[in-house]
Amino acid sequence: MNIGIVVHGPNIIDSGYALKLIDLIREYGEVSVRLGGTMGRTAVIDKSLENIIDISKKLVPSDSLKIFHDDNVDVIFLLNYGKSSTTGQVFGYKVYSHYKNKISQNNIPIIQIERPGEADGSVINWSAKSSLAKEFADNLNLNLVTPEEIYENHIKDDEKSRTRRTIHGVSPGENIMVNSVVIGKATSDKLTLVSKDNHITEIIGGEIKPHGVEKLGKINLNEAIVKTGLLRKAKVTPRVLEKKKSENFRVAFLDHAGEDVYQFRDSSLVITIGDDTTLISSDILYRFNIPIIGITDGDLDKVVEDGFKSKNSVIFEVESGNDDIIGNVIQKELFNGEKMSESFTSIDEIEEKIIEIINNRNIKYTINKI
User: Is it the case that residue 279 has pLDDT exceeding 80?
Assistant: First the structure.
């Protein structure tokens, strides 16, 4: 039997269950494993699982499922560890729905194993029913839940509206991220996002962050990736990989998209714009021993528990609301509007140019050097 396994998110990896389940599924046939999503990459690196879980491409979970579908495997497992049974099951529904829209023939069983080891953990057989679903549910002492139950309990009401979306498993005080941008904070455990003309206009059960909504721009509310709370909960010891020294001093520019930082893992330095982008990016780049120059304004939403930073990193904190302004100028004047440059020779040279840019605009700032 040829088996595809899609591992999603850092929690299933940090908990140790990803490897346990992969080993268990191996007993049934030849196994190939790939990551679905982005934040799990760091967890794979920290656990030294790159040779087991393929993290070479940035893929959403439905695309990872499709790759195995196109490879014509016999069964696909989706491994996830959501914040609650509801969030995990709703995640599975949305992933499966996106996957169905990308394929022509829905003939391969897809079995989701959700929150293994928890009392509310479950197994869901999303398509082409397989006896393996019940077998794994029994072996792992998990509930066997049907797609119909999930639809009736959590999805049906939302699908009637294209302008409202209920977010499950939220706790008061948690950040609300849409497509990697923090747009507000939950004030209740019942949360609904409201949109008009493809823009978020209201958060029922939460406080909206106007600057975040502005950064987010137009979205399809039903298709958007929504996360709440910390992107990675586990306290970890980061694993630093050996990095080949580049002949050229390559500098990358990253503006409010921390999860995209992996594309710059061969850089000598990354300039990051925004508090949370700087926090996420520095934490990821620490694994590759790459310093950052971060432009922040003290508007930190803390989307990861710890933010590790490589030696020689520099953090500029400018007056509130000015990080975007300075970022735009840096990209225009130092990068000619591009995302990469090899025209610099050192961090000190870039730091001096950024200081000059800030001073020319009479903006107050502080510098923190790591």
Answer: yes
